[in-house]
Specification:
Blueprint: H1 3-7, E1 32-37, E2 40-45, H2 47-51, H3 53-68, H4 86-94
Antiparallel strand pairs: 1-2
Amino acid sequence: MSTEEIKKEPDNGDVKKEEAQPQTPPTDFKVAEIWIRSGQIMIDASETFWADRCRALGVLMFCQDIVKTAQIEKPKPKIIPVKGSFLNGVRNIFGRKK
């Protein structure tokens, strides 16, 4: 091997260097967990959540508003009703000419 081959460094032209972007503060926060244990509802939250009672009540009232405005989709009927009378439906099925 020649000395030129040993001194050469691999060409990393294909690898793009990541530019340092300023980190934005997180916008998602886990405030509390709601558990149902032995038939009782329990809210598991940190001490700082319970220490600021105004914010804790505000979060719980906001949850109440979410429950009030929740849109629950009704299940669609699986049986398709016959249009017209039942006899017309039977005539259409069995009265067809072949």
